[in-house]
Amino acid sequence: MPTIDILHRFDTALRETVPKIASRLQPGLMIADIAEKTDSFSWKLPHEAYDLYQWHNGLSGQPGKLNLAEKLLRLKGKWHGELSGRENEVHLKLGFRLIVAKFLPLDYALAGHRHLKLGRCLIDLLPVCILTEGKDTIYCMMRLDSENPILYCAKGTNLPPMKVTESFLSTQPQFSRLSNFITFLTVCCQQGIQPISSHQKSLQDEIDLQLNPLEFERLYQQQII
Fold first, then answer.
1. Contacts of 105 (CB under 8 A, 6+ apart)
2. Which domain holds residue 30?
3. In terms of Cα–Cα distance, which of 169, 97, 101 is closest to 129?
4. Of 96, 102, 157, 218, most Cβ neighbours within 10 A?
5. How many CB atoms lie within 10 A of CB 55?
6. For the chain, the helix, strand and coil percentages under 3-state DSSP, each to the nearest 5
7. Distance between CA atoms of residues 107 and 200, nearest Å
8. In whole angstroms, what is the distance from residue 122 CA to residue 120 CA?
9. pLDDT tens digits, one per residue of 19-68
10. Structural domain tally of the chain?
11. The pTM is what?
C-alpha cells in the first residue's frame, strides 16, 4: 500500500479513537514548499518523508501567554525547545509510564538534522518525532537514504551527536520504513487503546490516550524488523 494511503488510514484511526489529537495536527505542506526547504542539502529527501509532510506538518498548536519560567523551559530544549508545552505534545500512559511525544514540523526536523551535523554526526538523519519519559529521550529519526530510509527509535539521552554511529544505531529499535512505523501506530490506535477508568477521571486533562502495555508489546513485536 502506498505510504500516503497508510497515512490517511492513520488519520482515520486518530479521528475515530483520539479526535483531540487529530484536531491538533497541522495542515500538510505543498511539494514545492518541501522542496524549497530541502533542496540546499546534499541529500535527497526520501519519498516517504515527502508523503509525511504533505500529510501533516507536525503537531504544533498555538501556545497561550507564557510566563518567564515557561519561556525558559522552552528555550532549554534548544533546537526543539519552542515545541515544549502541552499544546505541542501528546501525553500517553503506557501502564505506569507517562510518555510525551512530539511530531516535529519540517522546519524543526531540519533544525534537528543541522544539530546532528554540527555535532559531527557522520550519518544523514532527520528527526521526525521525539519521545520523552522522565529524563529519558528517544529520537525517531529517518535515514536520509532513498534506497534505505530506515526509521530508528534511538535512545539519545545525553548522547552527543558524534556518538550516533552505525554501530550505535544497529543496537536501537528500528522500522525498515516509515510506512511500517505508521502502520504500527495505526494498529495501536485500533487495538491498543484502553478507556480511562472511572477512578482515573482526574487524568483526562493530563493524558491524551492510554495504551494497554501487553497489547502494545504484542503489536510492536509484529512490526519490528
1. 26, 57, 58, 60, 83
2. 3-223
3. 101
4. 102
5. 19
6. 45, 20, 30
7. 37
8. 6
9. 988 998 999 999 999 999 999 999 999 999 999 999 999 987 555 455 55
10. 1
11. 0.87
